[in-house]
Amino acid sequence: MTLVVRSILLPSIVLIAIGVFGVFTIDQQLRGNMEQRVEQELHRLADASLAALDLSDNPLNINNIDPIAKRIGLMTKTRITFVDSEGTVMGDSRVKEELVGTMSNHLHRSELVKAKEMGFGHDIRYSETLDKNFFYVAVYKPIEVEGTRAYYFARASVSADVLNSQIAHMRMALLSILLAAMMLVGAIAFMVLRWGAASTKEKQVLLESEIARKTQQIERMYELDSLLNASSDLEDAGKVVSKLIPSLLANTSGAISIYKPSRNQLKLQLFWGAEWQDSLYFSAEQCWALRKGHEHLSHLDSSQVDCEHFTQPKSQATLCIPLIAHGETIGVMHVLKAGFEDADVANAKAIAKRLAMSIANIELKTSLRHLAFKDPLTRLYNRRYLFETLSQWVAASRNKHTEIGIIMIDLDHFKLLNDEYGHDVGDQVLVAISQFYLDTVDASDIVCRYGGEEFCIAVPESNSADLMKLAHTLCEGMAEVSIDIDNTKKVKVTGSIGVAIFSNACSSIEHTITEADAALYKAKEEGRKCVRYGSSMDGSISSKELPNAMSK
Fold this sequence. Notes:
Elements: H1 3-55, H2 62-76, E1 79-84, E2 89-92, H3 97-100, H4 110-118, E3 120-127, E4 132-145, E5 148-159, H5 160-195, H6 200-230, H7 234-248, E6 253-260, E7 265-272, E8 281-282, H8 288-292, E9 296-298, E10 317-325, E11 328-337, H9 342-373, H10 383-400, E12 403-411, H11 414-421, H12 423-440, E13 446-451, E14 454-462, H13 464-478, E15 482-485, E16 489-492, E17 495-502, H14 509-525, E18 531-533, H15 535-538, H16 545-551
Parallel strand pairs: 17-18
Antiparallel strand pairs: 1-2, 1-5, 3-4, 4-5, 6-7, 6-11, 7-8, 9-10, 10-11, 12-14, 12-17, 13-14, 15-16
Helix pairs in contact: 1-2, 1-5, 1-9, 6-7, 6-9, 11-12, 12-13, 13-16
């Protein structure tokens, strides 16, 4: 056996042996890590689901809990189940609403037993309901239910097929990397022997340079992932993109457009490099990458068809890459450069994958915050959002010496309306009145469903005259809102209103709300369909000024 053959064959045999052992070891570690990642993600989703349930202002029954499970399950592509402390299933995202109440008691399911003992439990087992193996994670915590504490389970689960598929893909990638590494080492060994010792130092320098470049690229990718995952909204993500993308995609400029389902359009929201010259809005049909389902590259000197959303005269090559997360297209990454090499395209695609997952996670967090702060029927803000915002307003008011107006409204005879026409009509009235409030107040005002048929409107930087004018406009306008019932009858409602104003002289905003609430009940006692004022209004405007203020 010649020296050359021995120099190539022996290292190859050693490499294969080490590679096989390494693949086996890494595969075991990979499975453990994948299961741990799935467990952590399901744990986070179960905690978030229970938090969303805790924030609900509605009574905790199947009719209110099951829609929450189905909304969260739809957003996260997982199965979400809510179970009360007795084991009764109160909501399941994968089971029809009418069948939820017929599901068997879950109290003795292993993951729930562990969760009840330690607050957290997990298991992998067969689901008789859905006829497949599932990975289950459950949490058990107390939540506030109408002033009392009650314990609930929230369970998040995914099909074990998903985990096994991910592991299979990772195994294939690992084997590909091993094969590529073996070929690379073999090629390096052959070249070293062919060119001799004279070129060894030069190749070593080149190899070290490439490793350093890739290491730097990996570090920057890691930093990009870390900062994007820490971003609370798209504004934060935009700062990260404008700072880091130029170092990952040298000599480029570009933008990220995000799909807006409500408008059936995409909007460019994140930018880097030179100022963007094209329109900020475009439809999916205008982008070839979206129409093809993969990247679309148009060189400057080729006859390749350009995307229609590039409306300015072309001075650079363009690359559009769809952003796909959880199997859904959420936007497009647009890159402009003088010319693209294959490595540039591959690098841009790798970055696009990271951006897609990060943006999807940001939108999920935004959706959960929205769910936590909105009343599901009227889409108005709830009391939690009202008090969190008012605490910020109070701090600003004391610094600026401005006033905050509080208008409390209660619909007159609403219980009688419910008794006569039914709760469905009552709900229609609440929705219509809520829309009237939103159409009447300024965009900077907060309209909150305070509870039942009671509403609160907070007005920043207000004054007594403007506040009284708004209160009377609301009182008179409510009486004109009508709701059709089966196209045969119209229902109208009136409201009683109490008004108070917060200033630096007030002890707290809660006291101002209590004052406005007391004025509201005074309005009810004095005949309803009228406006009454708290004592804080007396210090700001006299009764003589009242007619003048109202006539302005």
